[in-house]
Design a protein that fits this description.
Blueprint (H helix, E strand, L loop, with lengths): L37 H6 L7 E5 L10 H11 L4 E5 L18 E4 L6 H5 L25 H12 L5 E3 L2 H4 L5 E3 L4 E3 L2 H5 L3 E3 L4 H12 L13 E5 L7 E4 L19 H7 L5 H13 L1 H4 L32 E4 L3 H6 L1 H13 L8 E6 L6 E5 L8 H8 L25 H6 L2 E3 L1 E2 L10 H5 L4 E2 L2 H14 L6 E2 L1 E3 L9 E2 L2 H6 L14 E2 L3 H11 L6 E2 L7 H4 L3 H10 L4 E7 L3 H7 L4 H18 L4 E8 L6 H13 L8 E2 L7 H8 L14 H4 L7 H11 L7 H10 L45 E3 L5 E3 L40 H24 L15
Helix pairs in contact: 12-24, 16-18, 18-20, 20-22, 23-26
């Protein structure tokens, strides 16, 4: 494969994706869409599918949808691939619509974990699903990867099941399950799949597919990186390191007998005393008579034998890493012992660098049912040429025609919100070396950045401009997991291969990391100069601690690629929670904000920073949230949406949440530094509500809870009606509602209340709207009194509140509607402020 130099400037020791001999079915050519029915298969001239993919998402043939990428990669290798999207899981019939796969099933829950997609951080069921036509929830089962695998096995028992996707990646070992509040087994055991591919699995998938195609039994495919599987017996030829316990003493050397001479000690070990021998030799050479007739002494240089294994710090020989497997605490151990769970999580995260990671094994079951879940090292990252090849495959860039509405459009009731968001966006890279403990990107995509070439990215911009129906000239995003890690990486291949740090930017930016943003700036400038391109926006999250290292990049970004609002994620202001998140201090935010405002003013624009914060993260105290609320008020921020910590499987922060220990440091039973090794965990609905209330200190619905908390914390001085106070002393009439930029996240009044009884005066202070004294005495249900609610379906006039007279309903109704619309518009302006969008990508669910 004649590939340009890799973006990390290092060669990758792996077989290129395009070097495999195509499967015989490549003669059928490229399908406009991967078939979802037998009729489509017949149109393509297929009698069967080699691979059938099952996914919990609607099928969108776009490179931002994982199942479309996998399908097109397999198609390019010559396989006939069909897709079953969001099948009815109540029976196996829906899994038989394409017939029996010739080679294997490919199963995934979708682009999102099915549990995170279905439930909020408070374990409440979501009413929407952005990956479903019509934004309808409930189209996939809980733990979809397990359910789909079971139905595939029921449909055709003898067909191998290859499991993948982010749901499988995050559950490849025993993991804490937030929704059931217990530790669950590896998904390899629960799903009974034949093999699991974790991470971005193009490399492993192509290898596994070709080996199954040449009739290798799937149970013999055990040497592919990035795979996990179940085995009953240990693999011969491997060196096993036992890491099933903590705080075990190391090797104890035999005590030296103080009454024995050096020669006697050496003789007891079957050796000679080199020190005395050397003394005798010097004495002999010094005597000219004894030295007469002897050859002169020669210096002997001792060099290590490369054939022998190296030695560690303990002096003992170490086995070769490529033939070493670490035995983690078993499922039964981590289920019963949170300390061992934290220890297993720490070991897992230390073994994630493809350059030095060792295989892992974890026992499940005891006695006759005992079996091991074996995890091979992570996959080797793709090169630039391979990334260009993957993203250059013939994607239709649209949902499957099955989702067209009656008017032949994707914009009607069958619109897929996730596709709408990314239809004009471009993924330029993969991976993230930030290592944020609450995020699962690193566990899935790895820490090594895999970037596309500039020409490949520009070609996709032109493809969108020329082929996407309804394109307005605006590219919504040029990014990836992070907006500004394109072509960033380690300066040395040797250091990259040996590094075991969980983050390249915490507690500070590594001295071996180059932070040159020039390649990214060149892409921005070249893309926005293309004919037909009006605007290039950056919608991915920005790593501002890296951005401040390149003022040229910040200037280019702020002056040309911000659509009024730029979202960044400082997550917190206090050192305690930030250290548990592995996020930079708030000082980096202040420096970036200063640069943002400077370049915005130079451009003559009015733009705003939108910071995101997390409530209830492990390591966050009530005082930390109070200080954050004070900072928000001081800087004039009023959070519309609140992000509460969501314990996703396998994340380091989830291990903190479950165990109360810090896996970023060495895990011990007997802690030496309690402040560092122990983590304050925010549990219980009341405390989580309190932490969210601090973020929305301006919401009167939260004031009673905050008053109680401030008094118990000894901070009653923050209760008052002045500008320096956090909340006022009075309590207006509230209805318990919550208004969000996303309407489906809003809640209505509790008990049918009439609305919030407060307003904001010209000084920005909250002022209570006092009820009229006579209002308490007015009878309820009489239309002559203002406090009564109108009956459903009955129209009242604006002035009197009485039913309209006969023959005048149209005129009074028109006036009433106009007045209502004006009032609603005014209320929207008061709530959102000038230029605040009511909805859109910037206020959508965070990744």
């Amino acid at each position: 494969m004649n590939a340009p130099i890799d973006v990390s400037f290092f060669p990758r020791n792996a077989k290129p994706l395009t070097s495999y001999r195509p499967y015989w079915a490549k003669r059928f050519g490229v399908a406009p869409y991967l078939p979802m029915s037998r009729a489509e298969m017949e149109q393509l001239g297929w009698d069967s599918c080699d691979v059938v993919l099952v996914t919990g998402d609607a099928y969108v043939d776009h490179p931002s949808f994982g199942m479309a990428v996998i399908g097109r990669v397999l198609e390019a290798q010559g396989f006939r691939v069909g897709i079953i999207a969001q099948p009815d899981w109540q029976s196996a019939d829906a899994f038989k619509v394409l017939g029996k796969p010739n080679l294997f099933w490919g199963v995934t829950a979708g682009n999102m974990d099915s549990m995170i997609n279905r439930y909020t951080a408070d374990r409440k069921i979501r009413s929407d699903d952005a990956y479903t036509p019509g934004d309808v929830g409930g189209k996939r089962p809980d733990r979809a990867a397990v359910v789909y695998s079971q139905r595939c096995r029921e449909a055709y028992k003898d067909v191998p099941i290859v499991l993948g996707g982010i749901e499988g990646s995050l559950r490849r070992i025993a993991h804490y399950d937030y929704w059931s509040d217990k530790v669950r087994r590896s998904i390899v055991v629960d799903s009974k799949c034949d093999i699991l591919l974790f991470g971005n699995a193009e490399r492993a998938l192509v290898e596994v597919a070709h080996r199954i195609a040449r009739r290798d039994p799937v149970e013999t495919i055990t040497d592919v990186r990035g795979t996990a599987f179940v085995r009953r017996a240990s693999e011969p030829g491997w060196f096993e390191i036992d890491s099933t316990e903590v705080d075990e003493p190391g090797r104890v050397d035999e005590l030296i007998n103080p009454y024995m001479t050096t020669s006697e000690q050496a003789a007891a070990q079957g050796q000679a005393c080199s020190q005395e021998d050397a003394t005798n030799s010097i004495a002999v050479s010094a005597d000219p008579q004894s030295a007469a007739g002897q050859k002169p002494l020669q210096t002997v240089q001792i060099v290590p034998n490369p054939a022998l294994p190296s030695k560690g710090r303990s002096g003992r020989a170490l086995p070769p890493r490529e033939r070493t497997v670490i035995r983690l605490p078993s499922y039964e151990q981590v289920k019963a012992d949170p300390v061992l769970y934290a220890h297993a999580n720490r070991v897992l995260h230390l073994e994630t660098n493809p350059g030095n990671a060792r295989a892992l094994v974890q026992a499940h079951g005891e006695g006759a049912t005992a079996r091991d879940v074996w995890l091979n090292p992570p996959p080797v990252p793709l090169t630039t040429a391979e990334m260009d090849w993957v993203f250059g495959l013939p994607y239709a860039r649209n949902p499957h025609p099955q989702y067209l509405d009656a008017q032949g459009s994707y914009e009607g009731p069958t619109k897929i919100p996730a596709w709408e968001m990314i239809r004009a966006s471009i993924n330029i890279m993969r991976g993230c070396f930030g290592g944020c403990t609450f995020c699962s990107i690193t566990e899935h995509e790895g820490r090594i950045i895999q970037s596309r070439s500039e020409d490949s990215i520009i070609a996709e911009v032109e493809d969108i401009r020329d082929k996407v129906k309804g394109f307005t000239g605006t590219i919504s995003d040029l990014g990836g997991p992070t907006a500004n890690m394109y072509r960033l990486g380690c300066k040395s291949p040797e250091i990259e291969a040996a590094c075991r740090k969980p983050s390249c930017v915490f507690p500070g930016i590594c001295q071996n990391l180059h932070t040159d943003h020039a390649p990214l700036v060149n892409i921005y400038r070249r893309a926005r100069k293309l004919p037909g391109i009006k605007k290039i926006l950056i919608g991915s999250g920005l790593r501002y601690d890296l951005a401040v290292k390149s003022p040229e990049y910040v200037k280019e970004l702020v002056q040309h690629h911000v659509g009024g609002y730029l979202k960044i994620a400082p997550e917190h202001t206090e050192a305690g929670p930030l250290s548990k998140m592995m996020k930079p201090g708030i000082g980096n935010y202040d420096r970036f904000k200063q640069m943002f405002e400077q370049y915005t003013e130079e451009a003559g624009k009015k733009q705003f920073l939108i910071p995101y914060f997390i409530a209830a993260h492990p390591g966050t105290t009530d005082e930390d949230m109070l200080n954050l609320a004070i900072w928000l008020k001081k800087n004039g921020f009023r959070a519309d949406q609140v992000q509460a910590f969501y314990p996703s499987p396998m994340a380091s922060a989830t291990a903190m949440y479950h165990s109360g220990r810090n896996p970023l440091t060495r895990v011990r039973r007997q802690m030496r530094d309690v402040a560092e090794e122990q983590v304050d965990v925010v549990r219980g609905e009341k405390r989580r509500r309190l932490h969210k209330a601090f973020l929305r200190y301006h919401d009167p619905n939260n004031w009673p809870l905050l008053r109680e908390a401030l008094k118990s914390m000894g901070r009653a001085d923050l209760i008052g009606n002045g500008k320096h106070h956090l909340i006022p002393t009075f309590q207006p009439l509230v209805d318990g509602s919550y208004q969000s930029a996303r309407k489906k996240n809003s809640t209505g009044p509790k008990g049918g209340g009439a609305g919030v009884g407060y307003t904001i005066n010209k000084d920005g202070k909250a002022v209570a709207l006092r009820r009229r004294p006579q209002e308490l005495e007015e009878p309820q249900g009489d239309v002559r009194f203002r406090s009564s609610a109108p009956q459903p379906g009955r129209m009242l006039t604006q002035n009197t509140g009485l039913p309209p007279r006969a023959g005048t309903g149209a005129r009074t109704g028109s006036r009433g509607n106009a007045g209502g619309n004006a009032a609603g518009a005014a209320a929207g302006r008061r709530q959102g402020g000038a230029g605040t969008p009511a909805s859109g990508k910037g206020t959508g669910r965070r990744r």
